[in-house]
Amino acid sequence: MASKVFVITGPSGVGKGTLIRELLKEVPDLELSVSATTRSPRQGETDGRDYHFLTPEEFERRKEEGDFLEFATYSGNRYGTLRSEVERRLAAGHSVVLEIEVQGAQQVRAAELESVQIFIAPPGPTVLRERLAGRGTDSAEAIDERLKVAEQELAAQGDFDHCVVNDEVSRAATELIGIVRSELGRAPAGR
């Protein structure tokens, strides 16, 4: 079975992280790529496990050196996937999950990295507001900003190989797991 890259994206607050945790429990051959960010760690987050926390200067230097497969600015912070994170896992024979922003998913596509692109959608816009507010990590202004971005991101969902509506976690997780297992069972393109 060939190693594959799975790009999982969707608006902030849609539940990507929750679904990915379920996916990783059920499909043990997958590894989650740890993204880099310039934002400050949230309570309980660890450098190298949750994110690679970089200063804005370090992020920019690494971007200029071509270290990122994709990168984006979101809510005033930079996020990116280090090429080395993905290459190391693929070389070891593991399939990789990238939990990234829609902008980053588009860059992965443009870089012509063969990947399976999966969009996680909310059942409706009010659900996103409730989930973002329920996290307790953002101000009302930050939530409004994230919702504006989400509107644009939702418009792009037709560009993805698969779309999973996260209306109910266990149902959405089962659908996501089914998609990934099916894709892992397919031969790589061109063979």
Descriptive labels:
191 residues; alpha/beta; 5-stranded parallel beta sheet; 7 helices; 42% helix; 21% strand
Describe this structure in words.
The protein is α/β, with parallel strands linked by helices and about 190 residues long. Helices cover about 40% and strands about 20% of the residues. It contains 7 helices and 9 strands, in the order E-H-E-E-E-H-E-E-H-E-H-E-H-H-E-H. It has helices spanning about 15-25, 55-65, 85-90, 100-110, 125-135, 140-155, 170-185, and strands spanning about 5-10, 30, 35, 50-55, 70-75, 75-80, 95-100, 115-120, 160-165. The protein has a 5-stranded parallel sheet, with helices on both faces. A 4-stranded mixed sheet has the order 4-3-6-5. Helix 1 (about 15-25) packs across helix 7 and helix 5 packs antiparallel against helix 6. The radius of gyration is 16 Å and the shape is globular. About 35% of the residues are buried. The model has no long low-confidence stretch (mean pLDDT about 85).
Report helical residue fraction: 40-55%
The structural class is alpha/beta
Number of strands: 9
Element-by-element helix/strand order = EHEEEHEEHEHEHHEH
β-strand amount: 15-25%
Summarize the structure.
With 191 residues, the chain is an alpha/beta fold. It is 42% helix and 21% strand. Strand 5 (68-74) and strand 6 (77-82) form a beta hairpin.
